[in-house]
Amino acid sequence: MSSSTEPATVTPRGALRRPAELARTVDVSGLVDTEGGLLDRAVFTDETVYRQEMRRVFAPSWLFLAHTDQFHRPGDFFTTWMGEDPVIVTMDRNRRIRAYLNSCRHRGARVCRADFGTTRNFTCTYHGWSFNLEGGLVSVPNREGYPDSFDTGQWGLVEVPHVETYRGLIFGTWNPAPVPLRESLGDMAWYMDAMLDHDEKGTVVVGGIHKWMLEGNWKLAAEQFATDWYHVNMSHASALMVLAPAGKKPKQEIVHRAGRQYVGANGHGAGFPVHPKNRFDDGTVHEWTDYDALRERLGDARVEGPLTNGHATVFPNFSYLPVNGSIRIWHPKGPDRMEVWAWTIVDASMPEEIREAQRLYNLRTFGPSGVFEQDDGENWSEVQGTAGGFMANRVALNYQMGLGGEREDGRHPGTTSELYSDAAGRSFYAHWRTLMNTPAWHEEHA
């Protein structure tokens, strides 16, 4: 994986000087009260707050880009987003994974409009500027029309300066001097390993990527996956009945589960039931799984907790569900819209028929038309739809469940709370508030 030391801002600017007024910032301290467990709905609706997020939350953070299984040979590429910036992730000729701003240096059009594929060069369809896999400008139509001072070496694609991986997950950041990815994850890595480290072969992607649009602020989804088991019994009641044996209600020990919630200082969060007999929901996957081998590799605490049922978010906008192998990104598309991209990942050692069973189970539960996924999307659009009113926007939201109950439980790394708690949500917004009120790398070097 790449780890360039070149800052993302070394681009010719000549006499250009952007007025400071174009990057107006607001103090968001009064919008988040983590001590009292209150949140102002302006965090979901205000355009100025949203634009500040792009600069101070997304620009400096580690953002999920892709899975390593999407790149097998030089020229393989995948296009995605970092906040609202389009990017290309590709394997260069030396088999190094790199990422570039997907924007031609001539007039700004995307140089790659395909979702994925294999290529030798990225060529802008507007005027034909072409860039190689290392981001260099290699072809300029009518080159003789430019002045002698025109240097193609200065007009290559803007590269994401740091790209790192963790157990097959590729992350990138625009920050030229970031905290290393593993350090940024902290104790969250222990919880992620319960999904990603079942065997030495790691994980692979099956079934492509599903994409859909939702009405709702991206944080509504990210915070739910970090902190909210509370909604399951109410929002997903019909789905739980469908999955229960015919003619029977879900067992009370399933409906009223005990568990823990990891509360990460960097905004990460994970919730999971805890039970000695936790298992994968799909029968075919359950029967294939060697739980004794997983206990030996991962330990009892992970197998009885975050290995199967549960939810998690890596701040700011990457989430996953271990029980069905779902990983997803919540792409912001304005204060009131998001685009969801979801992958199914499985253990590389899984036979084909087991992979297919897990893929189908994921589609039926958390695919675009899944029985659980539709409930969540409806909730987020409902919350967003009421937040724009003058009076509604002035009424604080309650995040007080589990307030003061955070502790180290001695079994799970880091600070944890009860399963039914808003603790990870409060931590999510506390970290968001810190970033929003802290000048980012591009402001410090301006």
TrEMBL record:
Report the InterPro entries cross-referenced here.
Answer: RHO_NdoB-like_C (IPR043266), Rieske_2Fe-2S (IPR017941), Rieske_2Fe-2S_sf (IPR036922), Ring_hydroxy_dOase_asu_C_dom (IPR015879), Rng_hydr_dOase-A (IPR001663)
Q: Name one Pfam family in it.
A: Rieske
Calcium among keywords:
no
Residue spans crossing the bilayer: none
What molecular functions are annotated in GO for this chain?
A: 2 iron, 2 sulfur cluster binding; dioxygenase activity; iron ion binding; monooxygenase activity; oxidoreductase activity, acting on paired donors, with incorporation or reduction of molecular oxygen
* Alphabetically ordered keywords of this record: 2Fe-2S, Aromatic hydrocarbons catabolism, Dioxygenase, Iron, Iron-sulfur, Metal-binding, NAD, Oxidoreductase
Question: Any idea where the Rieske domain is?
Answer: 62-160
Keyword Iron-sulfur in the entry? The reply is yes
What the record says about family reads:
Belongs to the bacterial ring-hydroxylating dioxygenase alpha subunit family.
Against PANTHER family, the record matches this protein to:
3-PHENYLPROPIONATE_CINNAMIC ACID DIOXYGENASE SUBUNIT ALPHA (PTHR43756:SF1), CHOLINE MONOOXYGENASE, CHLOROPLASTIC (PTHR43756)
**UniProt protein name:** Rieske 2Fe-2S domain-containing protein
**Gene source species:** Actinomadura rudentiformis
